[in-house]
Design goal:
The strands form 2 sheets. A 7-stranded parallel sheet has the order 3-2-1-4-5-6-7, with helices on both faces. Strands 8-9-10 form a 3-stranded parallel sheet, covered by helices on one side. With 305 residues, the protein is α/β, with parallel strands linked by helices. It is built from 11 helices and 10 strands. Helix 10 links the parallel strand 8 and strand 9.
Length: 305
């Protein structure tokens, strides 16, 4: 079976699909990965065919780091620019990229995924990396900087988020669907994750909400422990003293990585501990580090921890 795996976003959106692609190939399936050009090297390192869809994500995040960190209307405006451009590229490039596929599995901000699959007449499944992305009275939307609210406020917050998403995306989405000969959609949020999303998380850590209104299937975490050894320099650092505290922010941008690095070093000094600082997409730890602190790039987290 030929399966297209498509995602828009950062490492956290794309890398789980790479693990899924590796597993599918091991079971005899034909796979193509469709993602921003940032991830070509990562996909091809696993032997997975890659088709670039959209513009590189990392330069955009770096350019708009200040807006994203400030939050509120600034972050919303930056996100709106990104999603608008992403949608245009996805509708223009994804149909050709998935030619011959019998199923499409989407992840991240894949706004065109359901429509492109519908137009191609193939099955579509959306990967939900955390149940909190599915509407529920048990928790607020992840865009809110709060972890808990009363159930009635959670419902209200989800209603507001759905309304905002519709105002932002419905008109351009339906314009693109008309160009494919497709009709309008009802609940836009439900359209994007489809009727049968796959929850790629371990149920014991992230169970489905009791009031989940979609037929979601939990398939477990897709990340597999890597057999890749740690760099020799990192192994040496780990052997030189007590286990360090790890600081890492993944693909998050930072308008002032030097200031953030200084803040981390101040915390390390106050705690009197050793530390590892992952550079990430923000470029943390670019300056010389004091004794007992090391910076790292990408490494096998399962081996490290």
């Amino acid at each position: 079976m030929r399966v297209a795996l498509a995602a828009e976003g950062t490492r956290g959106d794309v890398h789980p699909l790479l693990d899924l692609g590796t597993a599918l190939v091991a079971h005899g399936h034909d796979v193509v990965v469709c993602a921003p050009p940032d991830f070509r090297e990562d996909a091809e390192a696993r032997g997975l065919p890659f088709r670039g869809v959209g513009l590189p994500v990392r330069p955009f995040l770096s350019q708009h780091a200040g807006d994203l960190v400030r939050g509120g209307r600034h972050a919303f405006a930056a996100a709106a620019r990104w999603m608008g451009g992403a949608m245009e590229h996805q509708f223009a490039e994804l149909p050709d990229a998935i030619t011959g596929a019998e199923a499409l599995v989407g992840g991240g901000v894949l706004l065109a995924g359901p429509s492109v699959a519908e137009h191609a007449g193939i099955a579509y499944h959306y990967l939900v990396y955390c149940p909190a992305l599915l509407p529920s009275a048990e928790y607020p939307p992840v865009v809110l900087p709060v972890a808990q609210l009363p159930r009635i406020l959670n419902r209200l917050a989800w209603a507001v988020q759905k309304r905002a998403l519709g105002l932002l995306l419905r008109r351009p989405l339906e314009r693109q669907r008309r160009a494919l000969g497709l009709g309008p959609v009802g609940d836009l949020y439900a359209h994007l994750h489809g009727p049968h999303p796959l929850i790629a998380a371990d149920a014991i850590l992230a169970p489905q909400p009791a009031d989940c209104h979609v037929q979601a299937r939990t398939i477990g975490c897709l990340h597999t422990p890597s057999a890749e050894p740690l760099p020799a320099k990192l192994e040496q650092f780990l052997a030189e003293g007590e286990p360090p505290i790890y600081f890492g922010f993944g693909s998050m941008p930072d308008p002032n990585p030097a200031a953030t690095t200084a803040l981390l070093l101040a915390a390390v000094e106050q705690l009197g501990c050793r530390a590892l600082i992952q550079a990430g997409w923000a470029g943390l730890g670019a300056s010389a580090m004091p004794p007992g602190v090391a910076t790292i790039d990408d490494c096998a987290h399962a081996a490290l921890f």
